[in-house]
Write a structure and sequence with these properties.
Two copies of one chain form a homodimer.
Chain A (H helix, E strand, L loop, with lengths): L7 H8 L3 H8 L7 H14 L5 H8 L4 E7 L14 H13 L1 H14 L5 E7 L2 H12 L6 E5 L6 H7 L4 E4 L9 E5 L1 H14 L5 E5 L5 H16 L7 E3 L4 H14 L5 E4 L2 H13 L9 E6 L2 H5 L5 E4 L2 H17 L7 E4 L2 E3 L5
Parallel strand pairs in A: 1-2, 1-3, 3-4, 4-5, 5-11, 6-7, 6-8, 8-9, 9-10
Antiparallel strand pairs in A: 10-12
Helix pairs in contact in A: 1-2, 1-3, 6-14, 9-10, 11-12
Chain A binds a DNA duplex (16 and 16 nucleotides) through helix 2 and helix 4.
Chain lengths: ~350, ~350
DNA sequence: TTGAAAGCGCTAACAT
DNA sequence: ATGTTAGCGCTTTCAA
């Protein structure tokens, strides 16, 4: 059951060459005689040799591993001992991983890393103690860098990583400014697309369920929507703030409906909330899209799950997270040094809800 | 930006002791003079020292990292070069991570590992090439062992890992027998709970949407359900096989309904399919639970999302995956050598769908 | 209890 | 093109 610790030395002996030559063959260096190369390869094959990653990392100072950090902003005091607040953590973890958005993040990251034989280490960082774990992990060289997805504004992690001189790239511009690379969406443009679509559909009594307004994404999506309506002559757009969760969407929709029973169109700042909004609309006897047109945001799996399937503003999450991984790799390899922003364009996807 | 490579030597000099002593303090060995221990700790603090993981792993032969493998069974031939079949992979990855089940798996694993300062490396293994990556990863000592969650029967990975002498624990008994530890649910018992509940609710014209019948979980849930009805005198239970996805549930339900328009209760082998079934029922003018009572399985987030919220057989996934991680740790530490099965009991959760 | 020293398995600089 | 050798930073005997 124990690793039989076959080393370069063993393979070298088997092939009748030196350690260095075997190393060269394994690392695909060009300056090796083709004949010898084949002999070595055969020896590797025969012995079933697998290089030791720790030994290699020790000298190359690279692990070929990156951390994928899902970061919250919990400011809860230090945990007492190693018995963390299990409930708080589980609640956060459960909520994060239940969100279809997260699956797309992982998909994009894995899509980029795997062909390069790299793999992400999953870390959840919703407390101060957890953030320390993340920085410690990187500082001890367990990973070459971090991909950070914040779920809250005011997340102190990006700035912390920069301060520690660690490689990191964020999903979305950090609310707390820091000289760090990130990928983001032209959220404002997305809000505009939603507004134009609803207007084109002939809806005139519009409202919106926004995301958290302390988050840039929440603000910008709303701003783009409101601005566009304003240019079209609408002075006031009823608004209810949600928290990007299904329940908060249903709740916000209900509020909107009670204050503006005659509304005929609504822009909801993400699909999960839009799904909740559709349920709330149905419960209040409104048909979607006949009575009320609904436009979501993200084009996540919730857009398909929702009845009716959602018209939504697509955010190319997989492409964005793949780009994040590429950006990080460039920083790690030193091919890029300046903090860089990569902004993606949203796209309207028309389905049945409007 | 480069790691400033502070070493044990530096801390030792700072503290005026030897490397060995600093090492002992850092690893919490008892045989260190308390006074010296404090001096060393102060030096560590002052210098901001972080031990190098690779160097440590090289000698301890342990990485404190484990792989979390989501495994499919794709038998597709070897990929040509490093340009994997991106579409197939993305489809698999997207489907896996969109499933609420997966979030709970991660939650349970992280819940166990994090307090121990360990973190899972996420790997997707749906092709032969990907499986090779997984074994190579483990053989080179990049992780101490693997947690394997198979999404298909006939997954060759568990047997492969055993053959390679690597540490691994499976979620659910492998369909292809192998001497390997696993955690599982008493699926048959779950089917029984569903049947008894529907009978107690007075439903008599029952049917079932099963999971894939080549999967032990699919077979057993169905067997438990059918057996129990049989003992209650029912000779035949209409059945439609699904694939554990929302769409397959809706489809199976529609088929069932066309053949047995008068059914008044249905057991659906997971919540995602049950959600699809509820939608299909609604589309065919049936009210849930008044006309047709529905019982799901898993108690995943889909059970809450579903309208109405699902009565379901709870599978304690988080506990099960945490137990998996513990089992793996025991194997790694040598505290457990025999393949072990840990079977969890299901529990009926009554909500509004029946 | 503490220190000196021998590796862990690999890469890379240098010599040939 | 190949071999020799000096570390990478740590843990862990073994002596003191």
């Amino acid at each position: 059951m124990e690793r039989q610790s076959l080393t370069l030395e063993d393979v070298a002996r088997e092939a009748g060459v030196s350690r260095a030559t075997v190393s060269r063959v394994i690392n695909g260096m060009r300056n090796v005689d083709p004949a010898i190369r084949d002999v070595v390869r055969a020896a590797v094959e025969r012995t079933g040799y697998a290089p030791n990653r720790a030994a290699r990392s020790l000298v190359t100072r690279r692990t070929e591993t990156i951390a994928l950090v899902i970061s919250g902003a919990g400011e809860d005091g230090e945990d007492a001992g190693d018995d963390e607040s299990a409930d708080a953590r589980n609640a956060f973890t459960a909520r994060v991983f239940a969100d279809p958005f997260f699956g797309r993040v992982v998909g994009g990251v894995v899509g980029f890393l795997r062909p390069r034989s790299m793999h992400p280490v999953l870390m959840v960082a919703e407390s101060e103690a957890a953030r320390s774990q993340v920085t410690a992990f990187l500082r001890e060289g367990s990973a070459d860098g971090a991909l950070v997805v914040s779920t809250h504004a005011e997340d102190p992690l990006p700035a912390r990583l920069v301060a520690e001189g660690l490689h990191a790239v964020c999903f979305a511009r950090p609310a707390l400014p820091a000289p760090i690379s990130y990928v983001d969406l032209a959220h404002r443009e997305g809000g505009r697309l939603a507004a134009e679509h609803l207007i084109a559909r002939g809806r005139r009594r519009l409202a919106t369920v926004t995301g958290p307004l302390d988050l840039p994404a929440g603000q910008e999506r709303h701003a783009g929507f409101r601005e566009t309506l304003e240019r079209a002559g609408t002075a006031y757009v009823p608004l209810a703030e949600g928290g990007f969760t299904l329940a908060s969407g249903a709740h916000a929709m209900t509020r909107l409906l009670s204050e503006h029973p005659d509304l005929d169109g609504v822009f909801v700042a993400n699909d999960l909330m839009a799904q909740g909004a559709c349920e709330a609309l149905r419960e209040h006897g409104r048909r979607v899209p006949q009575d009320v047109a609904v436009v979501g945001f993200d084009d996540s799996s919730a857009a398909h799950t929702c009845r009716p399937p959602l018209t939504t503003v697509r955010q190319p999450v997989e492409e964005m997270t793949a780009a994040m991984a590429r950006l990080l790799q460039e920083h790690i390899q030193g091919a890029r040094t300046e903090p860089t922003a990569l902004i993606f364009e949203p796209e309207l996807v028309v389905r049945d809800s409007s």
